[in-house]
Design goal:
Strands 1, 2, 3, 4, 5, 6, 7 and 8 form an eight-stranded antiparallel sheet that branches. This protein is of the alpha+beta class and 205 residues long. A hairpin with a 4-residue loop joins β3 and β4. Helices cover 28% and strands 40% of the residues. The protein has one domain. The chain contains two helices and eight strands; from the N terminus they run αβββββββαβ. The termini are far apart.
């Protein structure tokens, strides 16, 4: 009589080795680093875009204000040495009479000028200075910055004999600001904004 013997095979479950665990950790860390790098790059690109758009809007508002002041101004300076031979003059400032009250003897002279920044070098600033005279004597002066982080600002004045100002062209080159923290550790640079506008004084028409 044959006896059947049932043998049970036991399968042994083997866990991950230390090498496999380390490899999986390295892969996970690489994927997380790549994901965070992509998110950081997207955030910086978004900040550069929004900062450029914001600066563009502010610069256009300032440019509209400048041209409006020029249109209503009178008695402009600086003057060319000879408006017949050299009618075009480029300057980093322009000044003009913005208000005149002959009855009370009040006159306001507005000056728009380029100044160096707080450090004395680097980006420039566009300042707005209003000087008030009463009967020909100095009375008061107020000033305020209009734009900061300017690469350059040029006033091109076209004169006729007199000297009579025919037209002013304002050329603004602005570098969007507040991007120092974005530039650190990246190669992102906000595009330079250039605005050019011309205006003719109405009082000289």
């Amino acid at each position: 009589m044959n006896k059947c013997t049932n043998t049970t095979r036991h399968t042994t479950r083997r866990g991950f080795s230390m090498v496999e665990v380390l490899i999986s950790l390295v892969i996970s860390a690489t994927l997380l680093t790549a994901t965070l790098g992509a998110l950081d790059g997207s955030f910086k690109a978004y900040k550069v875009t929004t900062e450029g758009a914001s600066t563009n809007v502010v610069a256009r508002i300032v440019m509209q204000r400048l041209t409006a002041m020029i249109r209503t101004g009178d008695s402009f300076g600086p003057y060319p040495i000879n408006p017949i031979t050299t009618p075009v003059l480029e300057s980093d400032y322009i000044e003009f009479v913005s208000f005149r009250d002959p009855v009370n003897g009040i006159e306001r002279v507005t000056r728009l000028e380029k100044r160096t920044g707080a450090t004395g070098s680097g980006p420039f600033e566009l300042w707005y200075i209003v000087t008030t005279y009463a009967n020909g004597s100095w009375e008061s002066e107020n000033e305020a910055p209009l734009l900061e982080n300017l690469n350059d600002v040029v006033f091109t004045m076209n004169y006729d004999v007199g000297p009579r100002l025919k037209r002013v062209t304002v050329d603004l080159i602005i570098q969007p600001d507040d991007l120092g923290d974005v530039a650190l550790g990246s190669h992102l640079e906000a595009p330079v904004i250039r605005l050019v506008a011309s205006a003719a004084p109405r009082l000289n028409d």
